[in-house]
Write a structure and sequence with these properties.
alpha/beta; 5-stranded parallel beta sheet; 6 helices; 7 strands; 15% strand; F-box domain-containing protein
Amino acid sequence: MRFSEFSMPGFSADVIEEIRDYRHSLETLHLDLRDVIESSPPYRPDCTFHDFEKPEHVFLNTRLVFNTLRDLEGIDGPTVEGRHAITRLLPPSIASLHLVWDDLEIDRFEQGLLGLVDATTDHFHHLKLVGLDYAERLDETVHQAMLGAGIEFTYERWPVSFEGGPGAEEPDDEWMGYGIQ
C-alpha cells in the first residue's frame, strides 16, 4: 500500500490515522518519510502504533519518531523524554525495527535507543533486530545495551523510497530548498 498520493510532499500525523483501519492485519509497516515536509498537525494523541496487533517488521525515519512528540499547543520542544520517543510509538508485536537517521540530534537518538532496550523486557518481547541507516557509528554504550538485551544491532543502507518516479511532478524551487529533488 502506498500513501504517496496524500502524504507527499507534505506529512502530518494523519498518515497514521489513514492506516489505522489495517491495524488488525498489517504485518509490515514501512513509513519512509525522508525528504517529506511536515504539515500540520505534526502531533495527535493517537499518533502511535500501540494498538496495531500484528506488525512484526517496522521501518521508520527518526524525524517521524521524534517530531511527532511535539505537544498540542505547538511548542517546538518535545513533550516526551527522548528516552521514551521510540517506545511510545511502536507496536508490542515488533520483531525487527529498521530506522533511518534523518537529521536528529544523535545524543537524543541514542537515548531513545537505550529507552527501547529498557522497555524490551516488559513491552517488546519479540524484538530481536534493530537496523540503523546512519553514516557514522553510535556510542559503544548503545551497542553493549543492545547486545545485553539479546537484540542484534546492525548498520544498514536504505535508499529513499519516494524520489518522484515516473509521472511525478517536478519539485519547484521552494521544495528544492528543503532538499527534495
